[in-house]
Amino acid sequence: MRFASLGSGSRGNALLVEAGSTRILIDCGFGPRETLARLARLGVQAETLAGILITHEHSDHLSGALALARRHELRLWMTHGTRMACSDAGAPPARCELIDSHQSFEIGDLLVQPFPVPHDAREPVQFLLSDGARQLGVLTDLGCSTPHVEQVLDGCQALVLECNHDADMLRDGNYPRHLKQRIASRLGHLDNAAAAALLAVLDRRRLQHVIAAHLSQQNNTQRLARQALAAVLGCAEEWVGVADQEAGFDWRAIL
Ligand SMILES: [Zn+2]
Ligand SMILES: [Zn+2]
């Protein structure tokens, strides 16, 4: 099982996950041409994807997904609430399979377990992916952790974890007040300290990869995110990966 990022942050997110002969995207917040270029960087052609899992309707996750799915006849999976939000925005996906936010399902060799998260979207979920032996937890947009989130992510081998902002940088930065309040709210985004606190309550013994994701370019630095997670892991800062907005990150194998 392996995974890679096309890029992560408020200007677009997309994560590739592969198990056996099955390859999927989680979210696609880049335009179709940009997505193809970023896929090519990782040696992937869109036709080889089994489909796209959507976490929620915010444009940094959805904006390129519908066009990519249409153009390459890819399957799409999303919750009923996310589909309703697409319809409200005038872009109902043509072919879309509805998922239950508490019900696992299979896509080829991948087992997908969605789980609901507190975030200011209609019915947002995040995903735990497994090939039956290994587990990758993906958590890019949530305002605060919950016991259910912690239970789902406990003991996984790889974790892509939101480190959206540094609380002091957000507070002292020049975002408008309402935006600061939205980001810092319990339905907004995780700051570095909250991400570290979430990591601290998980069983970390099997972790092979920890990647900080969805970093704000205005209100965070890769150094601060790495420091926060490394302090919990007791590892060198460089061991913690970062999903960069432009570069994403290269394939990482889960052994
Ligand atoms: Zn969001
Ligand atoms: Zn987002």
Q: Structural class per helix/strand content?
A: alpha/beta
Spans where pLDDT lies below 50 across 5 or more residues: none
| Ions, cofactors and other bound molecules | zinc ion
CATH topology: Metallo-beta-lactamase, Chain A
Main sheet overview: 7 strands, mixed
Helix content: 25-40%
Judging by the overall fold, what is the CATH architecture? 4-Layer Sandwich
Number of strands: 14
Mean pLDDT, as a whole number? Answer: 96
Strand content: 25-35%
Instruction: Give the number of helices.
Output: 9
Q: Tell me the series of helices and strands, N- to C-terminal.
A: EEEHEHHEHEEEEEHEHHHEHEE
CATH class annotation:
Alpha Beta
Strand order of the largest sheet: 6-5-4-3-2-1-14
Compact overview of the structure:
The protein has 255 residues and is α/β, with parallel strands linked by helices. Helix content is 29%, strand content 26%.
Layout: helices, strands, pairs:
Elements: E1 2-7, E2 14-19, E3 22-26, H1 32-41, E4 51-53, H2 59-62, H3 65-72, E5 75-79, H4 80-88, E6 97-99, E7 105-107, E8 110-116, E9 125-130, E10 135-139, H5 147-153, E11 158-162, H6 167-172, H7 177-184, H8 192-201, E12 209-213, H9 222-233, E13 241-242, E14 249-253
Parallel strand pairs: 3-4, 4-5, 5-6, 10-11, 11-12, 12-13
Antiparallel strand pairs: 1-2, 1-14, 2-3, 7-8, 8-9, 9-10
Could you please describe the fold and organization of this structure?
The chain has 255 residues and is α/β, with parallel strands linked by helices. The protein has a single domain, classed as Ribonuclease Z/Hydroxyacylglutathione hydrolase-like (Metallo-beta-lactamase, Chain A, 4-Layer Sandwich). Helices cover 29% and strands 26% of the residues. It has 9 helices and 14 strands. The chain has a 7-stranded mixed beta sheet. Strands 7-8-9-10-11-12-13 form a 7-stranded mixed beta sheet, with helices on one face. The longest helix is centred in the C-terminal third of the chain and has 12 residues. The termini are close together. The model has no long low-confidence stretch (mean pLDDT 96). The protein binds zinc ion (2 copies). The site of one zinc ion has 5 residues, from loops. One zinc ion (ZN) binds next to helix 2.
